[in-house]
Design brief:
Two copies of one chain form a homodimer.
Chain A lengths: L2 H4 L12 E4 L8 E4 L8 E7 L5 E3 L24 E3 L4 E4 L3 E6 L2 E6 L13 H8 L2 E9 L6 E8 L6 E2 L9 E5 L3 E5 L4 E6 L2 H5 L13 E8 L4 E10 L12 E2 L8 H10 L1 H16 L5 H17 E5 L4 E5 L10 H14 L1 H14 L1 E8 L2 E12 L4 E2 L2 E2 L21 H19 L2 H6 L1 H15 L13 E2 L16 H4 L5 H20 L3 H20 L28 H5 L13 H14 L21 E2 H14 L8 H14 L8 E3 L2 E4 L17
Parallel strand pairs in A: 4-5
Antiparallel strand pairs in A: 1-2, 3-4, 3-10, 6-7, 7-8, 8-9, 9-16, 10-15, 11-12, 12-13, 13-16, 14-15, 17-18, 18-19, 20-21, 20-24, 22-23, 25-26, 26-27
Helix pairs in contact in A: 6-18, 7-8, 7-9, 8-9, 9-11, 9-13, 11-13, 13-14, 14-16
């Protein structure tokens, strides 16, 4: 790896704790963060003082930050020579992240695995899955003839630390802050310390190892001349009590751990099993046929997904939340539908859990109107809110934190139509992948209502339906709906007449038809299939021979070419409805024109950047990495378009993260490779689909 | 008031909640802060949109801070003309702070009163005293012919708000954040709102009044043309569960209030009684014979004291903590001894509570050594730690957060000798003011041990004692002790031979003698009096005729002149031992030389700044306001020195706060009127003594 590609921030997170040990960028803030939408603004000091007294560190901190001058009239601190390691290697795998430099190796494990269904699984497995810890192995190889002092320390301006005291320590050595974060080791080589800085501690300013006024703390590691010492550390997170508001819930891990010290002790006791899990994940990804760029992107996306997950307990049962990265919106439904593929592979119960939350708390029946006649409302039907709240604040029943009335196709408007397709598609895929018959039966009425709602939004008058959305939700108060591409231009941002969204409604009709057929609701299923056909036909006939593609918005004006015209093919394909996406099946013409469409636009005249990176819309320099990954899968696996197999594109997309977004630990939204929003984001796990490619 | 004197930050705090609504500075951050060592870094928007659409506000915010561009691709927000009020009057009283501008008046009440002894008092009185709220009266006087919309709003980058929902609201209108802070009204004129900013809410960007993604929230107030509306608001604070670490404790108010909404409802329900309490305090100070500068300084100090107080509950009983301002050290004993006079007036039980905490958790018996022979230890005796911890982290038993071994008379060294005198003086004054016989009896052994410890630190060999400290605690590990003037030069900073500290030991001997005599321990009392005499004689004979004063450190080198030579006279005087401080009593010579000393140095050649402000040491440009106030009292009330009655000095000391430290809501440590440490500090309530001056 080149210098500028090896230093980038990455999440290192337990599953479901909305917690992250974020580090890896050069000379920037990082640390252990709880419930944050960005890397913790602290500093990380890892290295050793060699026999000449020189302090050698990895560059994981922003300048020196010694607060002693706040208290001391004169500068009495000794001077130490400091140096950051010049030769640093990084080995970034699915569940391990290893930095090596002369004499030192730092391996950080973020093991992830299938979280068992909490309604069914054994206590022990749930404890294992919910343990809010990250695992660190620090090796110091002192081949010199003088003793070294190694250190692993965290600093944060407002942090004050407690040393683990004998009574609570279970033989561990370590430090904690407010019982919320802490680190511990059970190695005999370690000593806990807290001080103004690593430097002030090493220079023995005062003889207290644990000086409580200092914002820096961690462990010192004694390494004698000629000795090689490996120390294991657990980094633990813990938030007690009710952490959500409007509806009070606790972290699920509080059901299994009495507090931070319990977490630290458990993590150290089970280090071997977590390390084995991490190693299995590393090997699985390495053994795939994906190129190094793709493997990087999957590893990076996976970390950022888990860093955003929040496994809660409402007093009766588990509540699964994925927070929307920097925005911290809870269970944003247009993200759920993208992260679906990952969750269905790992823990399908979380999909069901989220669907049920939407149904009981965040569904509604609205009215709709024709924008040509906004005063006249019609019955609309079932749909779902954009999200469930923000920053641990559950939004009121039937409302999202994001959607605002009175906006006409602008950011923060309602996403009623899109969220309806999203819920239906999640439901269809969940049933198809899990064969959860009981759940399917329960959703009979919902799916029938969803079908009617989709039809009404095409046109309340059946004879006037053309297959795509034409009516707006009255919740916009005479405004206009948008799509998940909310901050893009109207090529993808507006909902009405949008071919991306139309594709999703086609897929939603198919999903409804499939499940209702299984439930014996053949009449409704037939209506759904009829609607799917109508939609596909409308899209097919909208292919503009002159342009060479289907314009993004079927309003007679749009000339934008967009990649996501093909996006929705993923749903029937993943549901096993291969006929539906076949060039010889019932939607053959639609599939063929999508293929022509994509072939025509997948070049740098329309939808590629000069370096081969994908550009979702020809008219906007604004792309979402997660959506690119999803559309790449469709283009390669379903449409088999040769231009979509491009190592150059993968390399470019890796650079977006490692160079463009190196401070943001996985970013979704880019403009020419520069991050412009959706930082610290969970959505890029759409790339898990690549592992399925034949 | 002039412009530059009317805008300064002030705490507005409940008692014992370590919480503050800090505001008042022009164009700077402020807001509702919990457990902070500085003003909350938010913004406060208070004003009204007039009939022409212009938004008029008080200047309590740092620039505009509209986050909408974080989400919106283009700038779609409407433009509004904004204006800050140009004519603002401030009326700053003991418990009310009123800002007036054309059409608007804002009155913020921070009522304080005697907190009853929780071991004895009625539930109802304790509830009243612990209610963690601040009270706001906002009046909008719309004499125009167009409707106005008033607003009171708080903003903080990471804050996300919930509207009070009907079920929980008890008829209130308001907003809360994480159930930790919130504001509510029960006026029919108010509507709750949350949005990106006041501007985006007023410009009706979207129709949602409570947009959950916005960091700004509060109430809008409808004021029709010609109408005058007064709205009462409660600002509430609440932190649930264990808030301290190492030893878990909760806020005392959690014993009386179920949560934030309960606090808000109670505060509004009892608004009248709190307003009456505030008014009584205002009147009391106004009725005093103190000049306006002195009244200002008392009001300012009182606010900052309460903002630092933390009334906890350990599961069995109340635990009183005063946090050390920006440093957040808990119950720093050399502050306790200064705030003692205030606490003995208001709630003497807090003094007893603190003394008992020190005794059970933070006392020890050490060894001592002669600095000339540091390898040889002698038995020292009883003393106390500097503090009890920091930032809600209790330090381990017998240790402070501050004191570090291995330092020779540098900041962070041990303060063993000074803290021993401090505990003894607090104990003596508490017993003398309260006549708490039971407590006195309990302290018999402690006071005898304290006496022996003081004597040993003079010299373990009785024959060699000269009355002042000569031996260092072995806890310094062959370093040297310091005093509360820790960051001053050695004139006040070093403990050994220091005449400020020697004065305190004289007073400590007197206090011990007084209490032990009352307990019938006449033999020990006589030893104490003998020691007091020895100390006074030593100081008297150290008067340097050539210099014209007693040099600060009796080491044969020091030439510094210090005001605090006289400081310790306050203790016997306040204990009623008027003979001891009389020019005709048993220490007549000592008192006379102190008088000569002060008269000689109280001029701008030695210990006055050119503007009349006091300078504690002739050799250091570093003064503590709290200590100045204390020494002013001694100089005027006890020594009756005419030069100490100076309105010019009071005016200068007011300017230190209103101009120098306008951002720091009461600062203690100044260099030529510029704040250099001890910001946001509770200690300045030493000036409560001024109210006793005859």
């Amino acid at each position: 790896m080149q210098h500028n590609q090896q230093f980038f921030h990455a999440h290192h997170s337990p599953m479901g704790a909305l917690a992250s040990f974020t580090f890896g960028e050069h000379g920037d803030h990082g640390g252990m963060g709880l419930e944050l939408g960005a890397p913790y603004e602290g500093n990380i000091f890892i290295g050793y003082q060699d026999g000449d007294g020189v302090v050698n560190s990895f560059p994981f901190y922003k300048g020196a930050n010694d607060q002693s001058e706040r208290y001391v009239q004169k500068d009495d601190s000794s001077t130490l020579t400091e140096r950051t390691f010049s030769e640093v290697e990084r080995d970034y795998r699915w569940a391990s992240d290893t930095f090596s430099a002369p004499g030192i190796s730092l391996k950080v494990l973020s093991p992830f695995f299938d979280i068992p269904d909490p309604a069914l699984a054994q206590h022990q497995l749930l404890k294992q899955a919910s343990c809010p810890a990250v695992y660190v192995e620090l090796t110091l190889d002192n081949t010199s003839d003088k003793d070294w002092t190694g250190f692993f320390a965290l600093q944060g301006e407002e942090l004050r630390w407690n040393k683990l005291l004998d009574g609570d320590a279970n033989g561990m050595v370590g430090v904690t802050c407010r019982n919320n974060i802490g680190l511990a080791s059970n190695s005999k080589h370690t000593r806990a310390f807290s001080h103004f800085s690593v430097q002030s501690a090493l220079s023995k300013m005062g003889n207290n190892e644990c000086f409580m006024l200092g914002p820096t703390a961690g462990v010192m590691i004694d390494v004698k001349a000629g000795e090689k010492v490996t120390v294991r550390l657990a980094l633990g997170f813990y938030l007690d009590g009710n952490v959500t508001f409007n509806r009070a819930m606790q972290y699920y891990y509080t059901q299994h751990f009495t507090g931070l010290n319990d977490v630290l002790a458990y993590a150290l006791r089970h280090y071997d099993s977590y390390a084995a899990i991490a190693e299995r994940a590393d090997k699985e990804l390495l053994a795939s046929s994906l190129n190094a760029h793709q493997q990087y992107l999957i590893a990076h996306a996976t970390r950022s997904y888990y860093g955003s997950t929040q496994w809660l307990f409402d007093g009766t049962q588990s509540v699964w939340v994925v927070n929307e990265g920097e925005y911290l919106m809870m269970n944003t439904l247009d993200l759920t539908v993208d992260m679906l593929f990952f969750e269905l592979k790992k823990n399908p119960w979380t999909v069901k859990n989220t669907l049920e939350q939407f149904l009981t708390q965040y569904s509604f029946y609205d009215e709709i109107f024709d924008p040509a006649n906004p005063e006249l409302n019609f019955s609309g039907g079932l749909s779902f809110t954009h999200d469930m709240g923000v920053s641990n604040n559950w939004s009121p029943k039937g409302e999202s934190s994001y959607e605002m009335a009175g906006l006409d196709r602008l950011c923060f408007s309602h996403m009623t139509y899109e969220q309806l397709t999203n819920w239906v598609l999640c439901c269809g895929l969940y049933i198809s992948k899990t064969e959860d018959r009981a759940f399917a039966t329960e959703q009979r009425g919902t799916l029938i209502d969803g079908l009617q709602s989709l039809l009404n939004r095409d046109n309340p008058e059946p004879a006037l339906r053309d297959g795509i959305m034409s009516f707006e939700s009255a919740r916009t108060e005479q405004g206009g709906e948008i799509t998940t591409y909310d901050s893009l231009d109207h090529s993808l941002g507006q909902a009405r007449g949008n071919i991306y969204l139309a594709g999703k409604s086609w897929a939603a009709y198919l999903a409804i038809a499939e499940v209702l057929n299984q439930l014996g609701e053949t009449e409704h299923a037939a209506i759904a299939l009829q609607a799917a056909k109508r939609c596909a036909d409308k899209l097919t006939e909208s292919f503009d021979q002159e342009l060479g593609y289907v314009p993004a918005v079927l309003d007679g004006h749009s000339k934008s070419a967009i990649i996501p015209a093909i996006e929705a093919l993923v749903y029937p394909y993943q549901m096993g409805l291969t006929e539906a996406v076949s060039e010889t099946g019932p939607y053959a013409s639609y599939i063929k024109i999508l293929k022509s469409h994509l072939k025509y636009v997948l070049n740098d005249e329309y939808c590629l950047y000069p370096d081969g990176a994908w550009k979702l819309s020809s008219t906007a320099d604004n792309s979402w990495a997660s959506k690119i990954f999803l559309n790449q899968y469709v283009a390669r696996e379903i449409l088999n378009i040769p231009e979509a197999f491009s190592v150059e594109a993968d390399a470019a997309h890796q650079r977006w993260q490692t160079e463009g977004a190196s401070k943001h630990a996985c970013c979704d939204q880019f403009s020419s490779g520069k991050p412009i929003g959706s930082l610290y984001y969970p959505r890029c796990v759409t790339n898990i689909l690549w592992l399925d490619e034949k």
